[in-house]
Amino acid sequence: MDGIHDLGGKEGYGPIPVSEGDAPFTHDWEQRMWGLAREGICPSMTIDWFRHGLELMVPGDYLTFSYFQKWATNYLMLMVDAGQITLAELERGYVLEPADPAKAKTVDQVVEQVRRACTDFSVPEDAPAHFAVGDTVRTLRQINHNHTRLPAYARDCVGEVIAHHGCHLFPDEGAHNRHVGQHLYTVSFSAQELWGDDANPRDTVTLELWESYLVPA
Amino acid sequence: MSTFDSKHAAHLHRHIHSHLPSDPALRVKALESLAVEKGLIASETVDAWVEAYSEHIGPMRGAKVVARAWVDPGFKARLLADATEAIKEFGFEGNATGHLKAVENTDTQHNMVVCTLCSCYPFSILGMSPAWYKSAAYRARAVREPRAVLAEFGVDLPEDVAVRVWDSTAELRYLVVPKRPAGTEDWDEERLAGIVTRNSMIGTDRDLSAGSV
After folding, report:
1. A157 touches B: beta carbon within 8 Å
2. The pairing of beta strand B109-114 with beta strand B162-167
3. Phi and psi torsions of A100, nearest 5°
4. Which of A52, A82, A88, A103 is 20 to 30 A from residue B34's alpha carbon, by CA?
5. Residue B193 burial (10 A CB sphere; 0-12, 13-18, 19+)
6. What is the distance between the alpha carbons of residues A29 and B31, in angstroms, rounded to a whole number?
C-alpha cells in the first residue's frame, strides 16, 4: 500500500537525531512494551500482519508517535482484532473475569528463547527462478493495495540481480496468513538511477525483492 | 484468531485513535495489565525480557563477532559466506538473524544499513536498535543522501569511496564488518571487541580508533 510508512527518499525530515544517543530505551514504558512484544502476546498474528498493522495506523499518529508508541497502539489493535481483548475491556482498562496467571520466566529462559527464535523464512516451491545473478531487471510501477515490500522510491527502476536466495515467505500473502514462497533476490540500483545525475556515480542501494515485483529489463 | 482483514484493522486503529488517551505510558500499562489478567504473560516475564536485552543481548555480541573476524581468517571466511551459521559458534543466533549477511568495509567501499519500510534490525546480535535508527529522518534520508547522513555522524567519506546502502526489505539482516584500525596488530580478541562501536556495525561509523580504549 502507498502508506505513510514508506519513508525511503522522502524529503523534509531534517537532521538525524544523533544526539538522542545510543541508549536502547529512554522510558520505562518502552522497556515494558519491548518485553511484551518479545513474549509474543498475540500468537495468531504473522510477522507481516504485524507490519501491515503498523502501516494501517492513522497516518498522523504514525509520523508523530515514537517507535514503541507505534508498537503499543498496534498491539492494542492486533489483540482486539484477534479477539483476545475487547474494545470494552480496553476502554475500561481491566477484565471482568481474569484468567489463570501465566507462569513467570527467568532471564536465562528468555535468553534461550531468543536463541531458539532463529527463524528460517525459506519456503521451498517447485517454481523455477525467472532471474539469475547478473540479470538486469525492472521493478513494477504499480503495487498491491495491502501489505507489500517494494518501496515507492524503487518502483519502475532498473537494477542488477546480485544474489538469489531461493524462495522465501512472500509478505504480500503472509500478511493475510497465507504461507507461500516466492523467489527472492537482492537487486542493486545505482544511486543515479534512483535519484538522478547529481548522485555519486559510485553509490548503490540494494533491496531484497520478490520475483513478482520484477520484470526483465 | 487474527482476521488478517486490512479494512478491519484500519477501522480498529481509527477507533483506538478516537477513544483512547494517546499517552504511550498509559497505553502500554493498559496492554500489560490486560495481557497479565488474560494469563498471556506474567509481569515478572516482562522484567526478564528487559534484563535480557539490557544486560545480555546487545552490541557487545556483534563486537565479539567482528573482533574474531579480524584475528581469525578462517572465521572471517565463514562469517562472510554464511553469517547465520557463523554466529552460532558464539550462540548468538536468534531473533531476526535467521538470514544474516555480513558485509565488509574496504578502502573503496562503505556499507550502511537501513530499513525504510519499518525498522528491521538484527536484534539477537546487536540488541535493541538506537533511537536514531528508527527515526523518520534516518529511514527517509539514508537511501537518498547517505553521504550527508554520514557527515551528521561525523564520518567524512572521500568521494572515491563507494557507498552501498542495504535497505532491509525482506528477512535478510545485515552486519557491517568495519575495518580493523592500524596500531592494533598485537591486540587480542577481547581488547579488539572493546573498540567496535554499535554504529560501525550499522555503517554510520567508519574509522574506528585504537586510541578510544
Report:
1. no
2. parallel
3. -60, 140
4. A52
5. buried
6. 11
Residue-wise pLDDT for A86-143, tens only, equals 999 999 988 988 999 999 999 999 999 999 999 999 999 999 999 999 999 999 999 9
Residues on chain B touching A182 (C-beta within 8 angstroms): none
Quickly list H helices, A93-215: 107-116, 171-174, 191-195
What are the start-end ranges of the H helices in B52-96? 59-71, 73-81, 83-86
Domains and CATH numbers, chain A: 18-116 (1.10.472.20), 136-216 (2.30.30.50)
Do the Cβ atoms of B20 and A76 come within 8 Å? yes
- Residue spans in chain B of domains classed CATH 3.90.330.10: 58-212
Query: In terms of CATH architecture, what is B58-212?
Result: Alpha-Beta Complex (3.90)
- Alpha-helical regions (H) of chain B: 6-19, 24-37, 43-51, 59-71, 73-81, 83-86, 123-126, 136-141, 146-152, 189-193, 198-202
Alpha-carbon distance of A51 to A35, in angstroms, equals: 18
Amino acid (one-letter) located at A48: D
